[in-house]
Amino acid sequence: MRAKAFPSELVGEITVPASKSVAHRLLICSSLSDGETGIPGRIEGDDILATSECLSALGAVIEKSEDGLRVKGGIKNLTVKACAKESGSTLRFLLPVYSALGVKAEIKLCGRLAYRPIEGLFKTLESRGAMLKKEGDTIKVDGVLSGGKFIVDGSVSSQYISGLLFALPLLDSDSELIIENGIVSKGYIDLTLEALSKFNIKYETTKNGFIVPGRQKYATPHKVEAEADWSSASFFAVGGALSGAVKLNGININSKQSDRVVIELLKEAGAKVEEDERFALVSKESLNAISFDAENCPDLVPAMAMCLAFAKGVSRISGVGRLKDKESDRLTAVINNLNAIGIKSELDGGALKIYGGGARSGKTLSYSDHRIVMSSLISSAGGIEVETDSVNPISKSYPSFVEDFKKLGGKIEILK
Asked: Which residues, in sequence order, are bridge partners of residue 293?
């Protein structure tokens, strides 16, 4: 469905949905544990559904509760057919887990996921006993991992490392995870380690990775919260900076989520920000150009790029190379959509340059990417009218985005 967003002043407050990054991790740990775990939080989105279905195929029971989800853990099935939908997290987290458990599986991939990088993880898993084969949009999994040295390239995706960290405690012997070429998006590794600790999984940090004892059992804490999502919050934080005053409830200012840095970036750009441990209030002020490195917060680029389109001066965002391998070629999508609203932008020496000021009404494309759609719609808070070719992709991470947008005073028309 197409949509048109009209100039709007966003004023009010919303409760931010749960972080899908955190929810993925808690669902996996809960499903691998014996017993029952309550996961309170506003948990939604197609990616979470994908992880839930892949874990349910193993035998976990995942149900909605009054305040979130309830998981009855336990692995019962070692032959499964599952679908990762378009979720990179689901695939990269669960391939190592399936291999550690000795599961014989067929995992179907949808959309662009079938073309996103996975070869490095294959190589690591196959070196320790997994048998993996990609046939078109399906990955076939066989064999079983053995403990020992696992070498992984950390420059491609932090999700490779997280997936291995979930899997290695399940092996019959101890393992050493050696990370080469640095780590991108290190904050996401910290989220994984935090989740593992809550389920009593032990590990030792080394200079180049981790030592993970085998023969461990995931132990449920019975209740563990899926904290609010800074990635989702970033769009309405930008909306407040552009037009009015938006209060974001439920967020954790001290979160290990890398995207919490959006608050500091908006402050640097001139927005007024008030914050406490569980909320942030972002209000409109005159915005100025800034420069920042997105290496560890790539998901912020679509929202911040639209914000900086309305700032005075030329902004520069470095560390954007990995955006080409997201749900879309996100770097190209951002540049094209900025140009569509009259903002010159270009790739210069590996950095995205945005020549702010002078945005005008225009038509953008969704590129089948949830973050691109939400960034387009939120640009209307800058006083322009924007039409996008589809709002359907937002169901991936934030299906209630339009509802929250309207709650804050956003004006939007869904078109057939």
From this structure: 318
Domains 2-15+229-415 and 115-216 share a fold: yes
| pLDDT, tens digit, 9 for 90 and up, residues 168-195 | 999 999 999 999 998 888 889 999 999 9
Active site residues: 299
Over the stretch 70-103, which tens digit does the pLDDT of each residue have? Answer: 999 999 999 999 999 999 999 999 999 999 999 9
User: Amino acid identity of 409?
Assistant: G
Q: CATH: 3.40.605.10, 3.30.70.60, 3.40.710.10, 3.65.10.10. Which one for 115-216?
A: 3.65.10.10
- What order do you get walking across the sheet with 345-348 strand by strand? 291-293, 314-318, 351-355, 345-348
Query: Token digits for 238?
Result: 């930008």
> Phi, psi at residue 196, to the nearest 5°?
-60, -40
CA–CA gap between residue 31 and residue 291 (Å, rounded): 42
Structure-block tokens of residue 163: 């997936």
List phi, psi (to 5°) of 338. Answer: -65, -45
Look up residue 287 and give its amino acid: L
Residue 312: both structure tokens together: 């005075």
Order the strands of the 209-212 sheet from edge to edge.
149-153, 175-180, 209-212, 204-206
Instruction: Domain 2-15+229-415: give its CATH architecture.
Output: Alpha-beta prism (3.65)
Place of tokens 């309170």: 40
C-alpha triplet 25, 125, 137: angle, nearest 5°: 75
Domain residues of the chain, as ranges?
A: 2-15+229-415, 115-216
Query: Which DSSP symbol is given to 257?
Result: -
Amino acid at 397: S
Residue type, 210: F
pTM for the complete prediction? 0.93
Output the CA angle 14-20-24, nearest 5 degrees: 150
Pairing mode, strands 175-180 and 149-153:
parallel
Report which secondary-structure segment, H or E, holds 152: strand 149-153
The span from the CA of 304 to the CA of 299, in Å, is 9
The answer to whether 210 and 10 have CB atoms below 8 angstroms apart is no
